[in-house]
Write a structure and sequence with these properties.
Helix content: 10-25%
Largest sheet: 6 strands, mixed
Shape: elongated
Number of helices: 3
Number of strands: 6
C-alpha cells in the first residue's frame, strides 16, 4: 500500500518540459526568487483562502465499501509559478508561456496518471490559471488541483 507522502514525492518528481525547479513539501520556498522560476510546488494545503472556503471539507474524504478496498480521497494542489507580477512584462506577454506550460504539464502527467501506481485510480485534475500569492509576491501561474483515490 502506498502512502500519501509517497504520492506527494512522486508528484514532485513530475518532469515537465521547461520547468526549472520542482519542489516537494519539505523544500517549498517561502518566497520563490525569479531564478527559481518557472517552478512547480507540491502543496497538500490550499494557499488561497477564498478557494479553501469553497472546497472546505473536501480535502480528506473517506470512502469505504464493506466488500471492497477501503479508500481515502485527497485533494492536492500542484502550483505552477511562471513569473512574478509587476516585474517586467505584463499579463499578455506571459499568457502564451503559461498555456504552453499547461500543455507540457499534461503531456508529462499523461505518461504517469497513477503516479507510479501510488494511486488506485488515475488522478482527476482541475486546471485553474490565475494569479497566486506565495510569500510576499504574487505570480502568474496555474493551480493543478488533483483529486486522488488511495487505498487506506
Amino acid at each position: 500500500m502506498s502512502t500519501f507522502r509517497n504520492a506527494l514525492t512522486t508528484l514532485s518528481q513530475l518532469s515537465v518540459s521547461g520547468v526549472a525547479h520542482n519542489y516537494d513539501i519539505d523544500a517549498v520556498p517561502d518566497n520563490p526568487a525569479r531564478a527559481q522560476l518557472p517552478a512547480l510546488l507540491v502543496l497538500p494545503i490550499d494557499i488561497q483562502e477564498d478557494r479553501l472556503a469553497l472546497e472546505k471539507g473536501r480535502g480528506f474524504q473517506s470512502v469505504a465499501f464493506s466488500s471492497g478496498k477501503r479508500t481515502i480521497t485527497y485533494t492536492v494542489t500542484h502550483l505552477l509559478l511562471v513569473a512574478p507580477i509587476g516585474q517586467g512584462k505584463g499579463l499578455r506577454a506571459h499568457l502564451p508561456t503559461l498555456v504552453n506550460f499547461i500543455d507540457a504539464y499534461f503531456v508529462a502527467l499523461g505518461a504517469n496518471v497513477t503516479l507510479g501506481g501510488t494511486l488506485l485510480e488515475p488522478t482527476a485534475v482541475r486546471v485553474e490559471p490565475g494569479v497566486f500569492p506565495v510569500g510576499s509576491t504574487e505570480y502568474y501561474g496555474c493551480a493543478f488541483r488533483h483529486t486522488w483515490v488511495m487505498e487506506l
